[in-house]
Automatic annotation (TrEMBL):
GO terms for biological process: fatty acid metabolic process. May play a role in fatty acid biosynthesis and insulin sensitivity. Pfam families: ECH_1. It comes from the Bacteria. It comes from Chelatococcus daeguensis. This is Enoyl-CoA hydratase domain-containing protein 3, mitochondrial.
Amino acid sequence: MNTETTIDTPVLLVEEPEEGIALLTLNRPRARNSLSEALMAAVSKALDGIASRPDVRVVVLAAAGPVFSAGHDLKEMTAHRADPDRGRAYFSDVLGTCSAMMQRIVRLPQPVIAAVEGVATAAGCQLVASCDLAVAGAAARFCTPGVHIGLFCSTPMVALSRNISRKHAMEMLLTGEMVDAQDAARFGLVNRVVAEGEALAAALAMARTIAAKSPLTLKIGKRAFYEQLEMGLSDAYRHASAVMVENMLARDAEEGIGAFIEKREPNWQGR
């Protein structure tokens, strides 16, 4: 497991609190869970390990401390302005690493649920937007504040604009203002808002519901969802129809339909 170079505390906690559920907890509370190189590497490594595990059906992503994530570690990045190229190569590498981590979440076979308490800003907001689902505590807040420091949140924009309406996305990106949990739900950035401090419990409850489904069906459905989003309407329908035919021929679909007709619980085999 990756650790910061200056301390012994793991930057990411990886647990399995219940059968079929993996819990990843960002663990840099003193640094506002900013996405350091070590933290991004740890998240990416954990996701790569989970991707090949059929026994893990859902992933919950949470954070230790009062802040979900303050985005990139600006101290780490600023230190490289003294490089001969003023940090160009380093910035490119770090942003590429972050983008790859976000895409790992989207491409992970298992659904990922963000449990958000406190503030999620910049790449932290991008992280929430990259997850398939999100639950927010009532005091959670979200923003893309780059414009305040002369740095447009261009990479967070990619995930944000694929979650919420254009005008809401542009409002967040151009003003840099905080959005409260209720508005985040109204915008579509989070699925639901629960009492402060209850986001993790609610996310685990949602994960429990999803984990009871066929793991093959979850994998097929998540992949098809993101694939068809990038297509025109006709191509999307053709693709979805082809996916559904293959899904219908799977053992779990046959079992699920049979169980429904026979009024019994299905026995999923993941094939």
